[in-house]
């Protein structure tokens, strides 16, 4: 093979390799963005506020998503679970979950879900002003067409709010 042909061949290989690297990097960026969209945490936001012994926990569920009620309607559905933590230890909190809305997703019987905004209020068993609190929520976001994402555990610091109007 003449030297000029070998040089062209090497340039072609370098060009192909460069193109392959660029495509691989773009695919990694695209997959990363898609993976973020495929997480329940992308469709549900958690916030928590405290006034004295009362803690208000809010979950904002983005349209067109919903999360399963607690208790879940069927055994294989993952219920929404919320807890209040201090220094990594779960605090005793009496949470009363609402029934949720009933929707038909083609499973035979309707299921109960939360949509839009879910608010839970709990009174802690003992006042604990000297330790920061954290709220955690385990949720599974699903859309009305039947796509359910892997569950996510959301966490947020509980903000002391003297201006909050908790019951």
How would you describe this protein?
This protein has 167 residues and is an alpha+beta fold. It folds into two domains: 37 residues; 121 residues, Thiol:disulfide interchange protein DsbD, N-terminal domain (Immunoglobulin-like), CATH 2.60.40. About 6% of the residues have low confidence.
CATH top-level class of the largest domain: Mainly Beta
Summarize the amount of helix as a percent range.
Answer: 10-25%
Unreliable residue runs? 27-36
Classified in CATH, the superfamily of the largest domain is Thiol:disulfide interchange protein DsbD, N-terminal domain
Average pLDDT taken over every residue? 80
For the largest beta sheet, what order do the strands appear in spatially?
A: 5-4-9-11-1-2-8
Structural class, please? alpha+beta
Q: Radius of gyration in whole Å, from Cα? A: 24 Å
| CATH architecture identity of the largest domain | Sandwich
The count of DSSP E runs of length 2 or more, i.e. the number of strands, is 11
CATH topology of the largest domain: Immunoglobulin-like
> What composes the largest sheet?
7 strands, mixed
SSE string, helix = H, strand = E?
A: HEEEEEEEEEEE
- How widely separated are the two ends? 87 Å
* Count of separate structural domains: 2
Q: Please tell me what the overall shape is.
A: globular
Strand % is 35-45%
Number of helices: 1
């Amino acid at each position: 093979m003449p030297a000029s042909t070998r040089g062209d061949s090497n340039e072609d290989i370098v060009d192909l390799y460069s193109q392959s690297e660029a495509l691989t990097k773009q695919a990694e960026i695209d997959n990363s963005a898609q993976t973020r969209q495929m997480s329940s945490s992308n469709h549900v936001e958690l916030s928590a506020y405290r006034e004295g012994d009362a803690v208000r926990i809010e979950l904002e569920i983005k349209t067109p998503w919903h999360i399963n009620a607690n208790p879940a309607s069927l055994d294989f559905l993952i219920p929404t679970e919320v807890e209040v933590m201090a220094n990594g230890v779960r605090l005793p909190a009496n949470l009363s979950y609402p029934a949720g809305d009933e929707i038909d997703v083609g499973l035979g019987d309707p299921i109960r879900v939360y949509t839009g905004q879910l608010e839970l209020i709990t009174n802690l068993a003992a006042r604990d002003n000297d330790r920061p609190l954290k709220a955690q929520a385990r949720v599974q976001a699903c859309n009305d067409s039947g796509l359910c994402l892997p569950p996510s555990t959301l966490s947020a610091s509980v903000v002391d709010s003297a201006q909050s109007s908790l019951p």
